[in-house]
Amino acid sequence: MKNLEFTRIDDRLIHGQVVAAWLHAYGKVQHIIVIDDKTRQDPFMQEMFSLLVPSGITIEILSIAEAIESLKGGLAKPTMIIVKVPQTIQTLINAGVDIDFVNIGGMGMTPGRKKFFQNVSTSPEENEILKQLIAKGIKVEIQIIPAQKKVDVASLLK
Amino acid sequence: MVGIVVLSHGQFAGEAVKSAAMLVGHGERLASEGVLEGDTPETFYTRVHQIIEQVDDGSGVIALVDLFGGTPNNTVYQLKREKNVRIITGFNLPMLIYAITERTETTTQAELVEALMRVGASEIKEFGKA
Lengths: 158, 130
Fold this sequence. Notes:
The structure holds two protein chains of two kinds. By secondary structure, chain A is of the alpha/beta class. Chain A has a single domain (about 5-155), classed as Fructose Permease (3-Layer(aba) Sandwich). In chain A, about 35% of the residues lie in helices and about 25% in strands. Chain A has seven helices and nine strands; from the N terminus they run E-H-E-H-H-E-H-E-H-E-E-E-H-E-E-H. In chain A, strands 3-2-4-1-5-8-9 form a seven-stranded mixed sheet, sandwiched between helices. Chain A has a two-stranded antiparallel sheet with strand order 6-7. In chain A, strand 6 (about 115) and strand 7 form a beta hairpin. Chain A is globular. The two termini of chain A are about 30 Å apart. Chain B has a four-stranded parallel sheet with strand order 2-1-3-4, with helices on both faces. Chain B has a domain at about 5-85 and about 95-105: Phosphotransferase system, mannose-type IIA component (Rossmann fold, 3-Layer(aba) Sandwich), CATH 3.40.50. In chain B, helix 3 (about 70-80) links the parallel strand 3 (about 60-65) and strand 4 (about 85-90). In chain B, helix 1 packs across helix 4 (about 95-100), helix 2 (about 40-55) crosses helix 3 (about 70-80) and helix 4 (about 95-100) packs antiparallel against helix 5. The radius of gyration of chain B is 14 Å and the shape is globular. By secondary structure, chain B is an alpha/beta fold. Chain B is built from five helices and four strands, in the order βαβαβαβαα. Helix content of chain B is about 45%, strand content about 20%. The chains are: A alpha/beta, B alpha/beta. The interface between A and B is medium-sized, with 18 and 18 residues.
């Protein structure tokens, strides 16, 4: 999708690492779209995320349904999309949203998940979703911070 | 007495509290936690919630966090929903020492926030400058 600079899965959504390092690495980004149904319903968390975004960068917090509708119209400026789980990416893609690269930056250990790679944990269902994304030609990489080496998820799922 | 929680990525907060204790002793109503690799927002939130409960006697709490916008900052911010917590980012050892030595039963949360911000900033200087 034109103007989609970076798409990231991170269960913390926006935090220090994203704000500082990734915005620096993708210096063109002017807009962040957080896609998460729960956060969309939570004005307190929306307020917090707005405080975390550096000046000059705008932020929008959308439900999955709103994001599908909005992204159909394309992106007006260089944008970073952040979601919590692979399921959200799959839903967007199945609805016709054009995403060709996904960075995995934070998937902590929760019940049902097992250690996948270093401190990234996944459930069997999430592994299946990642396989399906890769089968569709989407590049999926683990890279927590820009200073780390990228790890190709396709090679880990073989 | 206003409670203090010190929060960081990794062991920094806990070790900073130990370093301060070497110099001025361990403060009252003072606790620390660090977010560790493998923590989720929920597991860390639970621990931060616990230490805030421990240090809060109803006078309010000040959180000293390592980094603006990091997980410790964002986690304790969420506790503002139910707790009287004010957050100062980028803490240093002079601030911790001040909190231990100068905080009394009558120091208010607002006074201490103001003082800690002042101390933290003023203690950063070039030493031995010609």
